[in-house]
Amino acid sequence: MTPCVALADPIRVAFVTTPNDTPTSAQIVKYLQRHASLMELSGANAFRVRAFANAARMLEELEVDIPQMAAAESLTEIDGVGKGVAEFIAEYLEHGSAQAYLALTETIPEQLLDLLRIPGLGTKKVKVIYDKLRIASIEDLTAACQDGRLDELAGFGTKTQQNILKGIERLDRFAGQFRYDVAVAAATPLVEALRQHPATLRVSIAGSLRRSKEIVKDVDIVLSCTDPAAVSAAFIEFDDVVDVIGQGDRKTAVRLASGLQVDLRLVDDDHFATILHHFTGSKDHNVQMRSRALTRGFSLSEYGLFPTDSEQAIVCATEEGLFEALDLAYVDPEMREGLGEIEGAENRRLPKLLRTQDVRGVLHVHTTDSDGTNSLAEMVEAARERGYCFLGVSDHSQSAGYVYGMKEADIQRQHAEIDALSDDALHLFKGIESDILEDGQLDYEDEILATFDFVIAAIHAPMNMDEATMTKRIITAMEHPATTILAHPTGRRLLERSGYPVDVDAVLEAAAQLGVVIELNAQPQRLDLDWRSLRKAGELGVHVAIGSNAHKIADLDHLPTAIGIARKAWLEASQVVNTWETDAVQQLFSQRSL
Question: Which of 173, 208, 238 is the last residue of a domain?
C-alpha cells in the first residue's frame, strides 16, 4: 500500500511559540503541566499547583479544542478550569508564553522538568536532588547514581537508585520515536523528489514505515539508479535535511529538521527487489524467509537469491518474483512480521487485504453541533467530494458539556437537518458518541437513544480505574441494546499516554457474543484499537468500523493511515463496515437498537 500523507505537527511539541504560531491543544496541556511542575519545584502554594495540574489533566482527558473554547471564553465551563487558569491559557495563546511561567524559569532550571519524565521520580525527590546536589540534568543524575553521590540523601537507597536508572533506560528506549503519520509526512516529499531525479530507476519506502507500524524510529528508502553519486548528492541538499550522518556509494543517512533519520539505500536495479524485501521485513520475517530458502536449496540475503551450489544469483525483478521462486504466495508488506504469514503464503490462505478503494463510507464524524469546526452541511459536502455512499454523524452526548454535548432539543434539530441533507447518493446515518458513565450506563434515556440509527459508546473520563472495574464498565455499556460501536477501546494516545487498564481480550470476546462493532479510530495519535488486538478481533468474527473521529474536514483524509493498520491486522474488506453497501450497514445498525 502506498503511504498516504496525513499532515501533523511533530510529536515533540514546542512550549514557547510565536504569536503567529497558534499553540495546539496538546501544546497547551503540556505547558500547563510544566507550569504546575515548576510551581511545585519552587515551593508555591499547593492549592494553586493543584489547580493547574487538575486543569491540565481534565483538558487532556476530555480532548477539547482548547483554542476554540478559549476564543469563545467558555473554558471555565469545564469542571476544574478556573478563571486564573483560563487567563493563563489566553495569555499563552496570544503571546506564545506566559509571564508567570517565564518568571519561574528565572529561579528554577527548566532542565529539571526532564527529570520528572523519569517514572517514579516526583517533584519532591527532584527538588531534593537539586537543592542538595544541584543536579538538573538526566546525564548528571545518571552519573550520581553510578558514583554514589545519591547515597548521601535520605530516601535514596540502593533500590531507589536502581529504579531511577531503569526509568532513565526506559526514556532512552522511547527517545527518537515518531508516529506513522509524522514519518510519512516527512518522507513522502523526499521520495517524490528522488523519483524525479533523472538517474532514478525505481524507488520505494521500506522498513517499518512500509509495514505500517504505528511508531517508527527512522525511515528506510530503497532506490535503484544509474548514477548513485549524483542521487546521493541531490539527496543531502533537500531543504528539510539538517545533518548528514554518513554518505557513501551505497548508503546515505541524513537527519531531518524533525529529528527523524532517513537512510537512503542505493542499489543497481537487478538487486532492487531483494534489497527492498530485506529492508521491509521484520527480523522474524526475514529469518523465516531465509530458512524457507535453505530448505529449497537456496541462500537468501539482501544481495539476492542464490542456489547453494552456485554463486550465480537468480535475478528476481520484483518482490512477487522472489516469493514465487520460494513457492509462496505474495505477502503484502504490512503482514511481514513473522506472525504466520509464511505458513499462510505456503498454503495459499492469506487474506485479501482491505484496500483504500474498498471504502464506501465513513463513520464517527463530529460537527459544529458539538466540538467540530465544520458544520454538518460542510461535512456532508466533503463526504460527497470524496465519493462516499454513507456518512455516520455522531456528535458528543449531553454529559460532555465541556464540548457542547447534544441536549434533546439539539438532537431533534440535527435530525431534521440530516433528513433534509440525506439523499440516494449519500445516506446520512443519525448517530451519537455517548459517554460511558462510571457505572457503565449510557448518558441518555432509552427513549432518546431509540431515535438514533447507531450509538457509539466511548470512555472519556474518568480513566483512573483498575483493570477489573474498567473492563466491567465497558462490557456493561456494550450490553446495552442501543450500543452499536465501541469507540477507541483503550483510550491510548501514541507517544503521549498509555491506554487505561482494561482486559482487551475480555472486551473482544464480549463484542463477539453481543454483536457490537469495534472501532479502529483513525486519528493518527490514537490508531486505537492496536493492530495486534485488532487481528484477534477479526479472528473472533467481530466486525470493525474505521471511525474517522473527524472534527474537521481534513480529518476525513486520515482514513488511509487507519487502513494500513487494518491491513496489518490481516483484515479483509468484508470484515470492515466502511466497505459495506448502505443497506447492509443499515441492517447491522437495526440489529443493535431499542
Answer: 173
Q: Which residues have C-beta within 8 Å of that of residue 316, sequence separation ≥ 6?
A: 273, 274, 304, 305, 322, 325
| pLDDT 10s digits, 222-280 | 999 999 999 999 999 998 898 999 998 899 999 988 889 999 999 999 999 999 999 99
Contacts (Cβ under 8 Å, ≥6 apart) of 179: 8, 11, 214, 215, 494, 495, 524, 525
Nearby residues of 562 by Cβ (< 8 Å), 6 or more positions away: 520, 521, 522, 527, 546
Q: Please, what is the Cα angle at 493 between 550 and 12, to 5 degrees?
A: 100
Q: Which helix (H) or strand (E) holds 517?
A: strand 517-521
**What does the pLDDT look like over 399-424, one tens digit per residue?**
766 667 889 999 999 999 999 999 99
Per-residue pLDDT at 3 exceeds 50: no
Task: Estimate to the nearest angstrom the gap between the alpha carbon of 526 and the chain centroid.
Answer: 4
167 and 183 inside one domain: no
Do 246 and 261 fall into the same domain? yes
Do 439 and 568 fall within a single domain? yes
Query: How much is the pTM?
Result: 0.79
What pLDDT shows up at residue 197? 97
In the chain, the number of structural domains is 4
Whichever domain contains 381, its CATH number is: 3.20.20.140
Residue 449 vs residues 411, 434, 582: alpha-carbon distances, Å: 10, 9, 21
| Percentage above 90 pLDDT, the chain | 68
What is the distance between the alpha carbons of residues 240 and 186, in angstroms, rounded to a whole number?
A: 8
User: Which of these, 230, 223, 211, 305, lies nearest to 272 by C-alpha position?
Assistant: 223
User: Is residue 435 located within the same domain as residue 536?
Assistant: yes
Residue 58 to residue 80: CA distance in whole angstroms: 7
326 against 162, higher pLDDT = 326
Q: At what angle do helices 531-539 and 504-514 cross, to 10 degrees?
A: 30
Q: Which residues pair with 355 in a beta bridge?
A: none
CA atoms within 13 A on the CB side of 62: 26
Helix ranges (H only) for 72-122 are: 83-95, 99-105, 112-115
User: SS3 for 6?
Assistant: coil
User: Do both 242 and 390 map to the same domain?
Assistant: no
| Whole-angstrom distance, CA of residue 405 vs CA of residue 442 | 13
Same domain, 300 and 258: no
Outline where 63-179 has alpha helix (H).
Answer: 66-71, 83-95, 99-105, 112-115, 123-133, 138-147, 158-174
> What's the pLDDT score for residue 400?
67
* Residue at 20 is within a domain: no
Range of the domain at 549: 356-591
Residue where a domain stops, chosen among 267, 289, 308? 267
Apex 105 CA angle, 100 and 106, nearest 5 = 100
